[in-house]
C-alpha cells in the first residue's frame, strides 16, 4: 500500500512494517478520512489539517483529481496555447513579424502536449508536497465506506486495509457522461479524459455538447487549426449563460468558422473501415465525416464501489449523494463535497464545500454555499465569467430590472491589446422610486474576464447596490474599468455610458 507519511516517525514505522496492512491490529484512526483527492477532497484535507485535525485522504489515482489531471488545468493550458497562436497570427498588426513560411505560425502539438504535462506535473508535485507538509496521510487505493465510519482501501498494490475516521468526507468526484450510439473508444470517439492526452491534433472534430467543456474544446481546436462542428441538443450553446453572452460567443464562433448545430439530434456514427475517422448521422439523414468526436454532454457522480451496505448514506436516482446545505449526508458523521453532490460541478465550489464541511465537523457556525451566486468561468475565446441572475432569470424571479451593458469596444485597454469583442453586463433591481438598487447579476464576455469577475462576484454576494459599488475606483487604463463604468451608468450618471 502506497502511503505518504504524516511525519518522519510515522514514515519510519511504516517503512519497517511495510505500510498499513490488514490484520495489523486496530484500524488506524484519523479525525477525518476523506475518500477522493480531487479539489473537494484535497481542500477538505488542507483546511482540516490547518484547523489541527488529523486527516487521511484515500485516492485511487493521483491527488489533484479530474481538475488537475484530466480537466480544468490541462484544458486551460491548451486554451493558453490557442491564445499564443492567436497572438502570433496577428502579430503583424503590432508591426512584429512572426510565424513560419507564409506568415502563419506552425504548431508542434507534441511540444504543446509536453508543456501541458509539465504544468500538470509541477502542480501535482506542489500539491503532494503541500499535503505532506501539512501532515496529511495519503493512501493510494480505492476507498469504500463501510458501516461505523470504517473505510476499506483496496490498495493499488493489491493489498486491502481498513482505517477509521471520527468523520468521513466523501469526495469521489465525477466521470464524463456518454450517450447511446457514441461508445468511447479513446481513439476516434473520446471524452475530455482522452482528448486531453492526444499526441496529434485531429484535422476535423465533432464536439457533442455545447456546454462549458464543449465550447472550450471547440474554441481551442479551431484556434489551433482544426475544423470544428458543435452539436448541441438545446436551442442554444451555453444554455445557462445570459443571452447577450451567448450571442457574443456564438458570433465569435461563427466568424472563426466553427459550425454550431443547435437543436441537434444525433443518430449515431459509422467508423471508417480504415480506422481513421468516422461518419456521424444526425437530423434528417444528414452526415458529417470527421477525424474525431469529443463527447462533452455533462458529468455524472462517481459513486460505484464507494458505499457498502449499512452506511446510512443515501444516493438519489441520478447517483448523487444526498446532502444538506452544510454538506451532511443522511448518515451521522459522514459528509459529501464536490462533484458527488448535486451542486455546480466546479472545482472552486468543491473548495467552498470543503470549508463548510470542516467547519461543520468542528462544530463551528457554518454559512452554506449560496449556489445561485457562485462564480462561473468558461475559458473559451472570448472568455465568459458571471455570478448571480441572468437578465431573463431576474425577470422570471419577478424583479423589476434595470440593465446596463458596456462593450469592450469603448475600453482603452481592450483597444490597446486589440481584443475588443464582448461586454460587461450588469443586471440590477429597480426600486419602486425608479432608482437602481441591488446588483443581481454580473455577466462578462471578452478578454480576460475570468480574471475580472472578482469585483462583480463580491457585489452580487454582498448584495451591494449600484451606488455603493460605483463609489469604488478602477485603475485606468484597465479592462476592469468596464465593470466600474457599467455600475456608474446604473446610478444614472455614467462617464462614457448613458
Ligand atoms: P454541461 O452540462 O455544461 O454541458 C453539456 C451540454 O451537452 C449541454 O448543453 C447539453 O444540452 C448538451 N447535450 C446533452 N446531451 C446531448 C446530446 N445527446 N446531443 C447534443 N448535446 C447534448 O457539461 P460539460 O460541458 O460536459 O461540463 C461538465 C461539467 O463540468 C459541467 O457542470 C460544467 O459546468 C463543468 N465545467 C466547468 C468549466 C468551467 O467552469 N470553465 C469547464 C469545464 C467543465
What is the assigned CATH homologous superfamily of the largest domain?
FAD/NAD(P)-binding domain
How many individual helices? Answer: 14
Estimate what percentage of residues fall within beta strands.
15-25%
CATH class of the largest domain: Alpha Beta
Distance, first to last CA: 66 Å
So what's the overall shape?
A: globular
Helix/strand structural class: alpha/beta
Q: Estimate the helix proportion, in percent.
A: 25-40%
How many whole angstroms does the radius of gyration measure? 25 Å
What hetero molecules are in the model? Answer: 1,4-dihydronicotinamide adenine dinucleotide
What's the β-strand tally?
Answer: 22
Poorly predicted spans: 1-24
What is the CATH topology assignment of the largest domain?
FAD/NAD(P)-binding domain
Largest sheet: 5 strands, mixed, barrel
CATH architecture call of the largest domain: 3-Layer(bba) Sandwich
Spatial arrangement of strands, main beta sheet: 2-3-4-5-6
Amino acid at each position: 500500500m502506497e502511503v505518504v507519511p504524516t511525519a518522519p516517525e510515522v514514515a519510519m514505522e511504516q517503512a519497517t512494517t511495510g505500510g498499513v496492512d490488514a490484520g495489523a491490529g486496530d484500524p488506524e484512526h484519523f479525525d477525518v478520512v476523506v475518500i477522493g483527492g480531487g479539489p473537494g477532497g484535497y481542500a477538505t484535507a488542507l483546511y482540516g489539517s490547518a484547523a489541527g485535525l488529523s486527516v487521511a485522504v484515500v485516492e485511487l489515482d493521483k491527488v489533484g483529481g479530474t481538475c488537475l489531471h484530466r480537466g480544468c488545468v490541462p484544458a486551460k493550458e491548451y486554451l493558453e496555447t490557442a491564445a499564443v497562436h492567436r497572438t502570433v497570427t496577428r502579430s503583424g498588426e503590432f508591426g512584429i513579424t512572426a510565424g513560419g513560411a507564409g506568415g502563419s505560425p506552425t504548431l508542434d502539438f507534441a511540444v504543446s502536449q509536453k508543456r501541458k504535462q509539465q504544468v500538470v506535473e509541477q502542480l501535482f508535485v506542489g500539491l503532494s508536497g503541500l499535503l505532506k507538509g501539512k501532515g496529511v496521510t495519503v493512501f493510494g487505493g480505492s476507498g469504500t465506506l463501510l458501516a461505523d465510519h470504517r473505510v476499506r482501501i483496496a490498495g493499488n498494490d493489491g493489498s486491502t486495509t481498513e482505517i477509521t475516521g471520527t468523520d468521513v468526507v466523501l469526495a469521489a468526484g465525477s466521470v464524463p457522461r456518454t450517450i447511446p450510439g457514441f461508445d468511447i473508444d479513446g481513439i476516434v470517439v473520446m471524452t475530455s479524459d482522452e482528448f486531453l492526452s492526444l499526441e496529434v491534433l485531429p484535422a476535423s472534430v465533432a464536439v457533442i455538447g455545447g456546454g462549458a467543456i464543449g465550447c472550450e474544446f471547440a474554441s481551442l481546436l479551431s484556434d489551433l487549426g482544426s475544423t470544428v462542428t458543435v452539436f448541441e441538443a438545446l436551442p442554444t450553446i451555453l444554455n445557462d449563460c445570459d443571452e447577450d453572452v451567448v450571442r457574443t460567443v456564438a458570433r465569435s464562433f461563427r466568424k472563426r468558422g466553427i459550425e454550431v448545430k443547435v437543436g441537434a439530434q444525433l443518430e449515431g456514427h459509422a467508423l471508417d473501415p480504415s480506422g481513421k475517422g468516422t461518419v456521424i448521422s444526425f437530423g434528417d439523414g444528414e452526415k458529417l465525416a470527421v477525424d474525431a468526436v469529443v463527447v462533452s454532454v455533462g458529468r455524472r457522480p462517481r459513486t460505484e464501489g464507494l458505499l457498502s451496505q449499512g452506511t446510512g448514506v443515501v444516493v438519489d436516482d441520478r447517483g448523487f449523494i444526498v446532502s444538506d446545505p452544510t454538506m451532511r449526508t443522511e448518515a451521522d458523521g459522514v459528509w459529501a463535497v464536490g462533484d458527488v453532490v448535486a451542486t455546480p460541478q466546479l472545482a472552486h465550489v468543491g473548495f467552498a464545500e470543503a470549508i463548510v464541511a470542516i467547519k461543520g465537523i468542528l462544530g463551528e457556525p457554518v454559512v452554506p454555499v449560496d449556489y445561485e451566486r457562485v462564480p462561473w468561468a468558461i475559458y473559451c475565446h472570448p472568455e465568459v465569467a458571471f455570478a448571480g441572475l441572468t437578465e431573463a432569470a431576474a425577470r422570471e424571479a419577478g424583479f423589476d430590472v434595470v440593465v446596463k451593458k458596456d462593450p469592450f469596444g469603448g475600453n482603452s485597454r481592450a483597444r490597446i491589446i486589440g481584443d475588443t469583442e464582448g461586454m460587461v453586463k450588469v443586471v440590477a433591481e429597480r426600486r419602486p422610486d425608479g432608482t437602481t438598487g441591488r446588483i443581481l447579476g454580473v455577466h462578462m464576455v471578452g478578454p480576460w474576464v475570468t480574471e475580472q469577475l472578482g469585483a462583480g462576484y463580491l457585489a452580487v454576494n454582498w448584495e451591494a447596490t449600484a451606488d455603493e459599488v460605483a463609489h469604488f475606483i478602477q485603475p485606468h487604463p484597465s479592462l476592469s474599468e468596464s465593470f466600474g463604468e457599467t455600475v456608474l451608468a446604473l446610478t444614472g450618471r455614467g462617464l462614457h455610458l448613458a
